[in-house]
Amino acid sequence: MMLKLFLLFICCLITLCKSFHITPISYTLLAENIESVVNLAGKVQEKRFFLQISNEASPFFMYVTPCGAPIHWQLFSVDKDMSLSEELDVVSSISTPLEESEKFRLIAGEEDKKRMTFFAHRVPKKVILVVRASSPSASARIFFSPSLFRLEEQYPPLPHDTRLATNVLDDISKKDEVSAQITWKISPQVRNAEPGRYRICTIVSRQDPEFAGMCDDVEEGVEAVKCVPQMNNSVVMGQLWRDRTYYVTVFVRDQKRGSSSAYEVQTIQTPPSPVNEMVSRRKVPRNIPRKQKKNAPIILTDGIMGQVELEPRKASVLNMKFFVHPLPSNQSQTAYLIVHACDGLIRLNLFRNGKLLKRSESFSGFKRFVVSNFKAGHLRYQIINDDDAKKTIRVWTSTNAAQSPYPNLPDDTSVKVVNRKCDSATIQWMRGQDEHLKYCVYQRKENSNFLEHLVSLADNLCQGGLSSSTLVGCYVHSPTSAEIETQSVLETIIGNLQPSSTYRLDLLAIPMNRPHPQALPYRTVWVRTNPYCAQE
Q: Which residues form the signal peptide (predicted)?
């Protein structure tokens, strides 16, 4: 009864404050069995909360998840003889530490940058939680419950061994890039859950992602994000630069509750460029899908973009043929193949005159293949579905690279944030290799659950821009004769941003002098604006 009267008093007080335009008090109420996000951004870096405990005779389980910065939490009991008005005065005065008051008793407290747990056989019915942060861009996720089962249901369970196994796949035919296979163990609860409830995601970044996987923040320096179904225990991350250190974070995402649990962060060091690049011929493993349904292959026309569909079945196959006619002088030719997987993972087997020449790893998005020293005959492109989803794939092939509808991007397609303010950000990128390219920038302001969108929704990689993004602007760059000989850097400023906000920025390049031009993206970058304009 007293608790109901107390809650009614708080509601009336907040309504009164709003009516007379009074600044609301600096605390609120947190309920059982509901994860609450506590935002500590700005000048208020401490907040106090009354915890609504239904039964003081029940056990008390609590998780505190820091995001953006280490969090210090404290749990206090309230003196029973304290009047309600005294209680409100003390709690609402952030300048008065509760540990200095005789009316409050410290039950427990901890400070860390990792998820913290607390358990007690029972706590008083009225307790106060204090949450502090040392950074103006921090937040915390609070969840407490009297039920251990409900606590374990809130966050995806991890196996006892949360270490990752990494294996660098070094293809010496690729001068600048390598791939890495990441493997992990899966808890039986996740593996045997209803299909689609969990997804297991991998983040590869250049900086230590201290809070990635458990929070909705994707920090800068992220190179790639890839997710697999809950039954999969490995993933291949491609396009990693040689001689670099990368941080790998794997986390399980609960699609039902919007919560995550992260494995241990693992570092990998990619090897340098091979010293002897003369060793170029390697035996290609024959990993061809067996028992293929013998359909007539699709005949591709030189220089014409084609679009095909893959059945929604793992290992379903589509065969295409491209005939290379001999030149009058019987000279060797080079055949170019571009595969643009719009919405998911595929693999490709490439045959020359019936013999397997190349077997690719799983990939999505844009991939270019080159077959050199080819006088005449036919090439067969065998595209294989790597999961159970339907695929849309664009295919272009020719012996004339100049006819390609796609731009020639630089080897380094990263976008760097070189300056940020409270309302703008400056980005730089390497110029493409074409003479006339149009660059378009798209932006999307991320809300508190944007990581859920990132790992659960797949945008069509063949479209010009994300359906949920806004076009900032486009401009055409035609390099000078001096710039053509060098890899010049381009720069632009993204304005009209809001302080203390996270934005996703996508940069797309479009050729200006090609028939039916197609856009290709640079690597996505996230930027967080400064919280205060007065500091600049």
A: 1-19
